Prior knowledge:
Methylamine Dehydrogenase, Chain H; 2 domains; 743 residues; 1 helix; mainly beta; five-stranded mixed beta sheet; disordered N terminus; 39% strand
Amino acid sequence: xxxxxxxxxxxxxxxxxxxxxxxxxxxxxxxxxxxxxxxxxxxxxxxxxxxxxxxxxxxxxxxxxxxxxxxxxxxxxxxxxxxxxxxxxxxxxxxxxxxxxxxxxxxxxxxxxxxxxxxxxxxxxxxxxxxxxxxxxxxxxxxxxxxxxxxxxxxxxxxxxxxxxxxxxxxxxxxxxxxxxxxxxxxxxxxxxxxxxxxxxxxxxxxxxxxxxxxxxxxxxxxxxxxxxxxxxxxxxxxxxxxxxxxxxxxxxxxxxxxxxxxxxxxxxxxxxxxxxxxxxxxxxxxxxxxxxxxxxxxxxxxxxxxxxxxxxxxxxxxxxxxxxxxxxxxxxxxxxxxxxxxxxxxxxxxxxxxxxxxxxxxxxxxxxxxxxxxxxxxxxxxxxxxxxxxxxxxxxxxxxxxxxxxxxxxxxxxxxxxxxxxxxxxxxxxxxxxxxxxxxxxxxxxxxxxxxxxxxxxxxxxxxxxxxxxxxxxxxxxxxxxxxxxxxxxxxxxxxxxxxxxxxxxxxxxxxxxxxxxxxxxxxxxxxxxxxxxxxxxxxxxxxxxxxxxxxxxxxxxxxxxxxxxxxxxxxxxxxxxxxxxxxxxxxxxxxxxxxxxxxxxxxxxxxxxxxxxxxxxxxxxxxxxxxxxxxxxxxxxxxxxxxxxxxxxxxxxxxxxxxxxxxxxxxxxxxxxxxxxxxxxxxxxxxxxxxxxxxxxxxxxxxxxxxxxxxxxxxxxxxxxxxxxxxxxxxxxxxxxxxxx
Length: 743
């Protein structure tokens, strides 16, 4: 297998009814056939939370799983490569679930909007007709693996049953804030576990009755349940949490609510399994056909490592089969014992699945990674980087580990910087950064870089080969949850510098507040930094020749310390965009303040002129100077809507004195104009994916979706300065992708 694995779906994307309105000015027609070209996933692999894995009973190598950042991932190779489903087809979230049934063609799912959807073409589309069980959000879905018609769904207050393939539902149970913890279908016998007891039917679902959970204390509630049967032998397994914490919206991340692991042979009472105090569980699963075998998963609170237990004797004893100490039986990627992040990055299991009818195959997911076993936990393999770059079991994971993408990149990247012809530096959330010296085919994500804060936002390089990066202890600044002062003011940040093309860094200046953007003036001796803080934030200027501390420039009118981008024009004018600020706190956000916009200084920051129309005064994002305008008078600004219809792409041809809105109501992040063609540009949006135009200079350019790019929230677009046909995209939750222009 080569290091670069081209990931993508080449079939036609059908647009279904969207949860988010598609803006009218975006043309529905395709630009041309080239827009279907695949955008290949690149990066170091992993790094984001993954949920709800499900292994196909029809194909032992097929797994679906979801990312809370929006991706729905599928593998046909048992984790050796992954595809991201186009977001207009099916998006992921922490509660997205895909369920198989008796036919490989038919799949059911809860989508990111927590609605029921169905596919009748093996997941190629999700447009099959279904009735919605409830007007409320769905939290759980279970399907009879031996039928195409029977399923149970819960909205947290009621359980609904369908016997006709989701054409209709009827309510079969009601209890406030209950958890539907699992369900098994055995011919006419159906058992559904709720947090208040077992809901059973012996007539194929015609009637249901509740059985109290005898043997489980009243202050505990089932949150995960499985059953297995062989002949007349039946075994039930359940994980309980403290009842007060057992809510329908719970995830494995709340495993400290763990109360007990239980088993029973019906109709006998439940029996508690004695476990060490450090063991906390969220999930239990089985293949359904062997009552002697079951898996349980969660975390070890002593080591803060993911944990998997296995029983092969009906629950009489359990052994740890995911052996993280010395990576004893685990082939690791860049996370593992000895690695840059160790096992504490993944920390605990967020999803567990065992293949129906095949106890040997299981998959777990956690806060950053997926691991699979095909030999009943005897050995495990990482499923997030190329197998050719993994470390064999029993060996320490290198601190600086070189890996290559297999399409699983569930984290955010803010910018991409070329520090040489084949040398790239990527600015990441959570995993801080990644560095490539082979044009982005493989990446080193290491603990020896000198970068220690959570997020790197931006990087610039000068002609002497120095690289400067903006860092912060807080991620996702200027995205929806991170706009209030309490979020930003408690954070730290610094500018770091490198003299080896971005491989290693040392401190240049500790600002004590987040730094989100940088710009160099002239020969690269003056550095400007966007520093975020309600009182101390603003644009700072540092003379790299003197080593003196950076000085804060005057605050532009209206601004309240939330600068975004800063740029130095050829005539030494400064132009800065300031982004959103909301009153209140992150937990109780208030109104947007009019402190955002575009500001220009012609005297090195002593004074600033406000060049912001009313529509851009609440949530301006990137400002981009047109590289084809020799006077640098033409700028583009991405704008988000702040509870109003002002979002979109804006253009000025006179340095901000007048602006024209080019799109409808779209949350626009950024734009990148082809250095080889003044008419071609890509536009990134929050929820409409990637857009493109080949008529940018028109008064009203047409923007169309790039269907080959599958993710809903790209952030920035970069043309390779050494090969302008090569285009890279960063994203808010789906890593890096690259595409080669066909023209």
